[in-house]
Protein: SDR family oxidoreductase
Organism: Paraburkholderia antibiotica
Amino acid sequence: MKTIDLLKPTPGLRVLISGAAAGIGAAIAQAFLDVGANVYVCDVDPAAIDKAKSANPRLHVGVADVSNREQVDRIVDDARSKLGGLDVLINNAGIAGPTGGVDEIDPQQWERTVETNLNSQYYFLHRAVPLLKETSTQPCIIAMASVAGRLGYAFRTPYAATKWAIVGMVKSLAVELGPSNIRVNAILPGVVEGERMDRVIAARAQTLGIDFEQMKSEYLEKISLRRMVTVDDIAAMALFLASPAGRNVSGQAISVDGNVEYL
């Protein structure tokens, strides 16, 4: 097989992506559709899901709060029915969580961040791994972590804690599932341009008592390449990990961040 062919995911790959009506998840879904995959996405926002389906009728869609185990069970059952099985699970859903000192963060906000960012990944894994064990078509799991899963992140402790936990889970599952030929990796996005990042910068600026542009400049100064990454950069890495070119890549936490030096 030619090297260029190794970079192409197998046509007809069956892919389930959580939290994928917009942002990084939507870009990943579109990338897989563009290479001929069959894709099922879920999101908590019914309007966003309707919009995604209208924009691309080829998508299979469902609505769910991923922090709710019963709703995740329903999504996985529906995806299995619609796709006829599963080859790739992409645990993408997550929230930014609160910004503030650890003594100021509301316990309910902490719990909501853990439930959405971490517990949800377990819920999907618990139901999807048996399906992945049934396929011989490059079964793999991609977990969305963050550069905050390799660096300390002051005033964002709930978010950082969940992302570090995801990296630990990925490395453990790579060992556990390797004998079943299931590869498990994490993608660690850096500062991703878009409305969500703008909200994060604004919240941190408010916490530190500085203006938005100064805070944005400080973020960029922490990146070796002095630029943000895009959702398409993240999607490209997901495609690589699901392709034959990534067949021996497992247990890795791969940063796509322009080399964020510190947070």
Notes: The beta strands are 14-18, 38-43, 60-63, 88-91, 140-144, 183-189, 253-256. Residues 191-228 form one domain. The radius of gyration is 18 Å. The chain has a mean pLDDT of 95.
